[in-house]
Amino acid sequence: MTxxxxxxxxxxxxxxxxxxxxxxxxxxxxxxxVKGLAVINWKFITTPPKFMQAGxxxxxxxxxxxxxxxxxxxxxxxxxxxxxIYLAEYAKPGRLTHFLRTSIEILSSLPSIxxxxxxxxxxxxxxxxxxxxxxxxxxxxxxxxxxxxxxxxDAISAVPREQKEAALALGLTHWTTITKVLIPSxxxxxxxxxxxxxxxxFGEAAALLYTSGMSxxxxxxSNWNPFSPDSPLNPFRPGETLAVNIWKINSEGLVPDxxxxxxxxxxxxxxxxxxxxxxxxxLGSFLYRKMTSVK
Length: 295
Prior knowledge:
Layout: H1 3-36, H2 42-46, H3 59-90, H4 95-108, H5 112-126, H6 133-157, H7 161-169, H8 174-203, H9 206-209, H10 242-252, H11 258-291
Helix pairs in contact: 1-11, 3-6, 3-8, 4-6, 5-6, 6-8, 7-8, 8-11, 10-11
């Protein structure tokens, strides 16, 4: 076989693989949306679920998913970015740095059920909080931190060395160079990492079963006192998310319209993830243009 023929075969194989991936994604999303879009309406996304009667919604579960995403992002982003900046700019090659990178890789490979049981021990039992959204957010941060750290480190390391040297040659301090030159240039990669890490929050269920619980108290959306037990802003209350709700109604649901609710909740979850990705990318592009000279 000639080199030219091998190149053509490899090109065709790669195109076929890409098409298969696109078709799989389109088929999966199409099936979920076709089955679920007919169920979604204003009542479905704003009313609480019913336990024995048909016609319930997923309003509190959708709110809890978004609120948990915010809590997890608040915890993960500064810690992950700080660790990534340290590894990219301050850590010196050696055993300690190698140990840190190995630990991060091991942490990223932990099964979600193991992290959930660890969260049950630490954030539920040891702290005495019980099932809380804060416990769920801390458990999910264990998932997200390794990804956030590695992507931040890679994004900063990928900035051309000449930019950093030029900033230092102009008399800027190392910290000013990081904040004014490196982070703005690496922002697209960091935003991508944040999106990937945050998207996992929407879909995670196993860890949340043991930390944030499988129920939601009756919420009073006119009460915005974060210390009130029925306030939507209280992070120390149980909070069932959409992914947990889908698992629960499919495994032990007693309402007669179980399939319709599961289909609608699945489609709503997919739409929420797509909307979050688009908004996050738009925000990242806006921040990138504001922090750099790119128009």
